[in-house]
Amino acid sequence: MDTSHADIFARCQALVQHYSRRDAETHTVRAIRRGDYEAVAPGSFSEDFPAPIIANQIDTMARDMSATLAPLPSFNCLPSSILNDRSKAFAEKRTKIAHYYVESSNLQAQMPDAVDSYHGYGMFVGEVRPDTKCKSPKIKMLDGGFAYPTWDADFNVIEILLLSYMSDRQLAAYYPQAAAKVREESNGRGQERIKVYRFQDKSTNLVYLPDYGNLVIESTPNKMGRCTYVAVPRPMGEDWFSVPRGAYADLVWPQLAANEFRMLGLEAVDKSVRAPIVVPTDVADVPFGPDATIHTNNPQGVGRLKIDVPQGAFQATELLEQDIRQGGMSPGSRSGNINASVITGRGVDALSEGYSQQVAMSQSRIGFGLQLLVELCFEMDEKFWPEEAKEIRGQSLDNPGKDTYVPSRHIKGDYSVTVDYGFLLGLDANRALVFILQAQAAGLLSNDTAARNLPIKLNLAEEQNRIQLEQSRNALLQATMAYSQAIPQMLSNGQDPSQAVAQLGAIVQGIKAGDAIEEVVAKVFAPPPPQPAAPAADPAAAQDPMAALAAAAGGAPGGAPADPNAVESRPDLNSLIAGLTGKGQPNLAASVMRSSPAQG
């Protein structure tokens, strides 16, 4: 046996012993949630009632809490300076990459089980593993009830042991090299629960079978140089060396007692209904059993035998159910059972205050765990595939479905990401939205802050571009509508509106064809192309500009100048300008320019 492996085996055994109490509680809670009360309290049922006859409150509360905590928070990478466009573009690209990690890992689909494990068994556990096929990191959420981590002072995982159970068929599919050894030691009998240990620290990844002589089936170096697992415990009230506990460990026995009381109550009611009938002695005997008879000499005592059921039994049952809800921090309003006269939503909120606080506390821990996971994705991506150009799916205006990035260029050692539930912390989505809109209307929040704290997932930079594009298009439409309103004024002034009508018709046709409004407007209102210059009437004049100018000035036939001094000076230029005033009146202007050669 390898000495390094022997040291790991000893460390794993120490971790299992350290978490032994947590394992016992987890086993009990799992059995109760499955309805397997016999595994916890043998003899709890009779032949008449072989199964629980009350609602599984622990499982119901766990599922309700899981549904509340499952929605993902927002993931954003903030720029180092909001005034620097290059910094903003860099942060926007990393935000898209972070969303790609979340979406490609199907993280939303994994969240219900992950948060159920956190609240029910004490830990939120996830792993970042390399996907060699896609050349990208993937997030995998795990069952916290089978995780045995060791943390440093900042809750970073130093080493961790993961326990899983596989059948021999599953083991052969994942680790075919171990299947032959398992079949040999089990004499060919199929095994349904083979214990598999996975261990990781900063240098080693090790998978082995503790029940088969610590058979090592996989051993590889850890290329990351740190643990790729994240484990966030529930608040323990102690330091990080203590063992976390689930929220329902103390509610197992009250639920068993409530089931016992319910069965006794049913038995009492059954006996009361089927109690013997007291009849006079002159009544003939009837067979014994249900509804049997008892003879009496007291005619006043004729009737069914009374078997009183104490009212305290029913009160005790109600108290047990109330204690279970209180211990699980699940108020009656969650199930619609409100023992109060509540006529306003504020009254319901008051009944749910403790529940909201617990949700807020859990979301803060879960958000911290998700932040560590996404940061690990950035680091693994840059270390494993630094120069690999990758296609991602993101929100982009120019190319809505695709985008590309290269880790060495677009991550560049910056693994930071903010994971924020915003105003959703401790609130349901509807109340969070109302709170945000009210604060924004009162001027307490900016539009950017309100958008970052919405209870939905947004790429804020892209959303701002979309908003600006919509506003610009609306402005173009409004300008077009204003242009159409000028046609009646043109008619009243005696002007020809045919060009305006043609342009508006072209705009309508372009929109009907599906073109964007900005493209249609740019095409319709494009300036006309420049007109080519008119050809010269006299080819000789076209070849000799000075002769053409002389002829325009009144030169002699044959091109001889009328004024002998005109050979040494430039000809006079006579320019005419004709136009219309704003009232349609003609406006003529003429000017003469003469120039003489400079002396010197």
Number of strands: 17
- Helicity range: 40-55%
Distance between the termini: 111 Å
Helix/strand/pairing category: alpha+beta
What can be said about the biggest beta sheet? 5 strands, antiparallel
Low-confidence stretches: 338-352, 395-399, 548-553, 555-562, 564-571
Give me the number of helical elements: 20
> Can you tell me the overall shape?
flat
Nearest-integer average pLDDT: 76
The fraction of residues in strands falls at 15-25%
Strand order, largest beta sheet: 4-5-6-7-8
Cα-atom Rg, whole angstroms?
43 Å
Would you mind describing this structure in some detail?
- With 600 residues, the protein is α+β, with helices and mostly antiparallel strands.
- The chain has 20 helices and 17 strands.
- The strands form six sheets. Strands 4-5-6-7-8 form a five-stranded antiparallel β-sheet.
- Helix 3 packs across helix 5 and helix 6 runs antiparallel to helix 7.
- About 7% of the residues have low confidence.
